[in-house]
Specification:
Layout: H1 2-24, E1 27-32, H2 37-49, E2 53-58, H3 66-76, E3 80-84, H4 86-92, E4 101-106, H5 109-112, E5 117-120, H6 125-135, E6 141-146, H7 148-158, E7 164-169, H8 176-185, E8 190-192, H9 202-214, E9 219-221, H10 224-228, E10 233-236, H11 239-255, E11 263-264, E12 270-274, H12 275-280, H13 287-292, E13 295-297
Parallel strand pairs: 1-2, 1-3, 3-4, 4-5, 5-11, 6-7, 6-8, 8-9, 9-10, 12-13
Antiparallel strand pairs: 10-12
Length: 300
């Protein structure tokens, strides 16, 4: 009888212990803008990095879905909400009734004026200029075409880096051809392709890459995709690294929900170099820079 009673007490104790352990797990709601690989990589890093109960939602690129998602989130009362991508962040902001909310993988969060902490997708002008100085130490005059309503702050930051910026603000893609010709005539020795809708769409970017290659002008690009198509190099965010950085931010806020709002730049960005472009332009890249590059490849 005593043995049975002891076993019963042990079972009850174990049940309570397991229940307490489960109850101690944080509850995290994750909302992605759409189901694309970069966002899914970040989601997986979050799930790998935190022992939690997860509620996952997909906006499918349509903000009309946000009200239903928010209603479900509020009914589940998670400890934190993580919005991944611009659409999710804009849709969720200010609607979580005091539940701590952060974003990840958002381009130009300052421009969006998001009132929440998060990890941006942007790489600072300083980081890109620093990479330029390592790869092309003799570069003196950088050409850049941009929409002032999107990239003005990035260009302003670059102009503080003690290098000549030949900037051409414009709001229409139709002006790009003339602007690029004018820059080449002015003697730019590098072109900076910024993540801006005026220049970063496929047809305009292809024209810029082809024209600068013919003129023997190397291009700084916003992502490895452009490097594979002829740009000399890019400094970009690694999605898995952004995921790990997002985990750290989640953990800080779960520990202290009163953490002040802060927007973080991606840590340890990826340097991607196109070795074939360097060869075609007779550019000798220092060995230590090549060793630190995450990719070196040819033109697709």
């Amino acid at each position: 009888m005593r043995l049975h009673l002891w076993l019963l007490c042990l079972a009850v104790s174990m049940f309570c212990l397991v229940s307490e352990t489960c109850a101690a797990k944080p509850r995290i709601a994750i909302v992605i803008s759409r189901q694309i690989q970069p966002y899914l990589v970040v989601v997986q890093e979050i799930k790998n990095g935190i022992d939690a109960v997860f509620y996952e939602y997909n906006l499918n690129g349509d903000k009309k879905n946000i009200q239903k998602i928010i209603a479900e989130i509020l009914s589940r009362k998670p400890d934190i909400v993580v919005a991944i991508g611009t659409e999710a962040a804009e849709g969720i902001e200010g609607k979580t009734n005091g539940i701590p909310t952060i974003f990840s993988m958002v381009l130009n969060p300052y421009l969006l004026k998001l009132n929440m902490s998060g990890v941006a997708l942007d790489i600072s002008a300083r980081a890109q200029i620093q990479a330029l100085r390592k790869i092309l130490p003799k570069a003196k005059k950088i050409g850049v075409i941009y929409n002032p309503g999107v990239s003005a702050s990035l260009i302003a930051a670059a102009q503080k880096e003690n290098i000549s910026i030949v900037a051409s603000p414009m709001k229409s893609e139709t002006q790009v051809v003339a602007a690029l010709k004018n820059m080449i005539d002015k003697g730019i020795d590098t072109f900076w392709l910024v993540p801006d809708p005026v220049v970063a769409n496929q047809s305009i970017a292809r024209y810029i890459l082809e024209t600068t290659l013919k003129a023997n002008i190397p291009v700084i690009a916003p992502s490895p995709t452009f490097v594979k198509n002829g740009a000399l190099f890019s400094v970009s965010a690694g999605y898995d690294r952004i995921g790990k950085q997002t985990v750290k931010l989640i953990e800080r806020i779960l520990t202290n929900s009163n953490t002040r709002i802060s927007i973080e730049e991606p840590e340890d960005p990826l340097l991607t170099i196109n070795a074939k472009t360097a060869e075609l332009m007779n550019i000798v890249i220092p060995a230590n820079v090549l060793d630190s590059a995450n990719e070196c490849g040819g033109v697709n």
